[in-house]
């Protein structure tokens, strides 16, 4: 096969391929070798047959796992996927963070025990781990060594963590159980601002837009409150004589929210409809209107449609694939909607409620209390556009030992999930697909 033809095939099949941005020693990577290798790997990830992947049980935590994140993942954009090794960090109620090599199951480092951890996020760009514990202590850790970098006391037993980078400057926004949002700068965790969002209700919706200009903050615990949109700059660089630029989203009872990844600032929200048990999904565009004397945030409705859900679950998981594809999990059901409300696909692969979902450019993985993961892959239908195809289950062990999966995350060539141990000691399951 001619090199130019193979290159064209690669770019048609994987539109994000761009070897020119890589270091010089990688630019000469063989397109043919890459094409064959990637097709082989994707076939294994699509089929899920025995021998197409390895499964490691990662043991060591003596409490519940409260969060699971990649410190170093294998990106779909990287051409030399076979040379990379993924690292996952887990936070536990046992008060420790553990970093794992998921290919061989080794613990790379473990932090000293502290109060029970309640949350974890990472910044893959700088290889930094951020945790919160039950006393409200926020800590940053050096990802390679596990060395503590800095700490900040928020005074909140619950913290929602949101990390983002703007013009090479590092920020962390924290939502507290008292209803405030606190923004910290740099690895030193220097406080920049603190604003009240939902007095006496914990902030458990906290998102940043793809263009980093907007932060949405709100609570799922009060049906009468609306989430608020903040102009990020007014939180990261506040003016002493002005209140942060803020606007309420014109819906109440937010249950789940997500920014559309391919748009600068398009927001989808699941919220209460007119009747208590009815839910709707509404899409908004966020922008700023500047005049000579003031600036105003505009939150304009783009689409809105009722959700016809068979289950009466109060737990909703919402993710977005591209400019026109929303993935929603509720109870045992997984649904794919267009932004105009067309139900593109619906699946009931689980016998118990879905607890976590992970969406990437190749597949969707759902984790359930039935102690299984379901893998679904994206496909493009000539008539109906993008949709999902259900593929196979990955099993997590025995119900005599575990109560089901609680969290799942994935990179391009691996899946890692946590199982709730009946003895109180959660175990991670790492599935690595090999070429």
Polypeptide structure, described:
- The protein has helices at 3-13, 24-27, 31-47, 232-236, and strands at residues 53-58, 65-72, 87-92, 97-101, 106-110, 117-123, 128-133, 137-142, 148-153, 159-166, 169-176, 180-185, 190-196, 205-208, 214-218, 228-231, 246-248, 256-259, 266-272, 279-290, 295-307, 316-322, 325-330, 333-337, 343-347, 354-359, 363-368, 372-381, 385-395, 402-410, 414-421, 427-433.
- With 435 residues, the protein is mainly beta.
List the helices and strands and how they pair.
Elements lengths: L2 H11 L10 H4 L3 H17 L5 E6 L6 E8 L14 E6 L4 E5 L4 E5 L6 E7 L4 E6 L3 E6 L5 E6 L5 E8 L2 E8 L3 E6 L4 E7 L8 E4 L5 E5 L9 E4 H5 L9 E3 L7 E4 L6 E7 L6 E12 L4 E13 L8 E7 L2 E6 L2 E5 L5 E5 L6 E6 L3 E6 L3 E10 L3 E11 L6 E9 L3 E8 L5 E7 L2
Antiparallel strand pairs: 1-32, 2-3, 3-4, 4-5, 6-7, 7-8, 8-9, 10-11, 11-12, 12-13, 14-15, 15-16, 16-17, 18-19, 19-20, 20-21, 22-23, 23-24, 24-25, 26-27, 27-28, 28-29, 30-31, 31-32
Helix pairs in contact: 1-3
Q: Shape, please?
A: globular
How many extended strands? 32
- Beta-strand portion reads over 45%
- Low-pLDDT sequence parts: 21-28
Describe the biggest sheet? 4 strands, antiparallel
- How confident is the prediction overall: mean pLDDT? 88
Number of separate helices: 4
Helical amount among residues, as a percent range? under 10%
Kindly name the structural category.
Answer: mainly beta
N- to C-terminal separation?
Answer: 21 Å
Radius of gyration: 22 Å
Strand adjacency order, main sheet:
1-32-31-30
């Amino acid at each position: 096969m001619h090199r130019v033809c193979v290159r064209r095939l690669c770019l048609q099949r994987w539109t994000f391929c761009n070897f020119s941005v890589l270091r010089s020693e990688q630019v000469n990577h063989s397109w043919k070798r890459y094409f064959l290798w990637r097709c082989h790997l994707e076939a294994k990830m699509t089929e899920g047959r025995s021998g197409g992947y390895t499964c490691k049980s990662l043991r060591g935590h003596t409490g519940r796992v409260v969060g699971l994140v990649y410190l170093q993942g294998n990106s779909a954009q990287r051409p030399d996927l076979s040379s990379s090794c993924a690292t996952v960090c887990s936070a536990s109620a046992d008060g420790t963070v553990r970093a794992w090599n998921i290919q061989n199951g080794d613990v790379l480092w473990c932090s000293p025990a502290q109060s029970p951890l309640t949350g974890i996020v990472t910044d893959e760009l700088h290889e930094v781990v951020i945790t919160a514990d039950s006393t409200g202590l926020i800590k940053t850790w050096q990802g390679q060594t596990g060395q503590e970098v800095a700490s900040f006391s928020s005074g909140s037993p619950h913290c929602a963590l949101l990390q983002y980078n703007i013009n090479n400057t590092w920020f962390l926004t924290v939502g507290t159980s008292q209803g405030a949002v606190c923004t910290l700068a740099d690895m030193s965790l220097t406080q920049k601002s603190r604003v009240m969002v939902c007095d006496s209700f914990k902030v458990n919706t906290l998102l940043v837009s793809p263009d980093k200009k907007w932060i949405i903050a709100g609570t799922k615990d009060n049906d009468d409150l609306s989430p608020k949109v903040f102009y990020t700059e007014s939180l990261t660089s506040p003016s002493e004589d002005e209140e942060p630029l803020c606007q309420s989203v014109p819906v109440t009872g937010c249950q789940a929210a997500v920014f559309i990844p391919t748009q600068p600032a398009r927001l989808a929200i699941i919220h209460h409809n007119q009747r208590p048990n009815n839910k709707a999904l509404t899409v908004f565009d966020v922008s700023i209107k500047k005049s000579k004397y003031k600036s105003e945030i505009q939150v304009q409705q783009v689409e809105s449609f009722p959700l016809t859900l068979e289950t009466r679950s109060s737990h909703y998981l919402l993710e977005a694939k591209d400019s026109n594809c929303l993935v929603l999990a509720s109870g045992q059901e997984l649904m794919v909607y267009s932004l105009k409300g067309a139900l593109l696909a619906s699946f009931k692969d689980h016998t118990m409620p879905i607890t976590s979902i992970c969406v990437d450019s190749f597949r969707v993985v759902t984790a359930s209390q039935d102690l299984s993961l379901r893998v679904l892959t994206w496909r493009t239908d000539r008539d109906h556009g993008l949709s999902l195809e259900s593929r196979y289950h990955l099993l997590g062990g025995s119900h005599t030992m575990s109560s089901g999966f609680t969290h799942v995350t994935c990179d391009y060539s691996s899946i890692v999930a946590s199982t709730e141990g009946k003895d109180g000691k959660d175990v991670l399951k790492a599935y690595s697909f090999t070429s």
